[in-house]
Amino acid sequence: MSKAREPYYSYKRYLSERYGTTVYRVSVDAGFSCPHRGADRSGPGCIFCGPEGARAPYLGDSSAGDESGRLEAQIRGALEFLKKRYGAREFILYFQAYSNTNAPAARLKELYDRGLSQADFRELVVSTRPDCVDREKADLLASYKNGRRDVWIELGLQSFHDRTLERINRGHTAADFRDAFALCRERGLKICVHLVFGLPGEGRPEIEATVRELAALGPDGVKIHNLHVIAGTPLAEEYARGLVKVPGAAEHLERVIGALELLGPKTVIMRLVCDTPPARLVAPRDFPDKQRFLALLRAEMARRGSCQGKSHPGGIYP
Ligand code: SF4
User: Fold this and answer.
1) Which residues of 119-131 are buried (b: 16+ CB within 10 A; e: fewer)?
2) Digit-coded pLDDT (tens) for 211-231
3) Which atom of ligand 1 approaches the CA of 48 most closely?
4) Ligand 1 probe mutation, 99, 153, 230, most atoms within 8 A of CB
């Protein structure tokens, strides 16, 4: 029985169309921090962000940083594992933890060069904040593009509403995002934008306004997260005091369908839910797991005759 096509342009489909095979991500923590957390990563960052700063849970606690060849060791370990476990042959190097352009360009070059020297990576992916991107850094990233390798930048936006960005202590504005987006687009970088649905003070109208504005920019990819309350964060304190609510699955599903219909058909949907490890997750505790949520989403979109791009002037997917 043939598998029904997703009603949206999934990341899996993008990779398979682009490379004709499965490509595996090698995520690293190169020791960066964020401007509002300080060099030792201890300062107050975004209210929802845990001490791990979006680093992959499988990296454990001992492999952070770039000193003494740790960056190379992380990459070699991941490559060995992926080759042995999955027979992997093609890889993406993903600078994931914290803000991976938060250093002078010369330092970035050293770290990217060291990482890329470990294998013939098909993509360099760098996750960062809009206020950590300038011309020099965007030029540097663009210099890693070649006929065989794409360069992606993942920009954390979360919301286009400045009052929300202030409320969640992002430390940057929507204008910072627009500037960074333009710099990266001018240089032909592929751009993935991170959003969070359900931030304090935001309901469907605010989320829809953010997605509409983003859709008009035509990002290459989007990662959508449902608001998660992670233990030990300022958000967890607010949640314990009853100051914030966290959207459940039905609410998130409704918002995701609305967003997918607004986004253009060529934007790759790289994520639609959070998958915080249960040990760190305070709320929501009754959210279906990722596969179950995606199955519910497919079923509901099929029932409604919904698909990505349905409300976008660029047409529908596929
Ligand atoms: S910028 Fe990213 S890594 Fe840094 S505190 Fe905010 S969410 Fe966490």
Assistant:
1) eebbbbbbbbbbb
2) 999 999 999 999 999 999 999
3) 7
4) 99
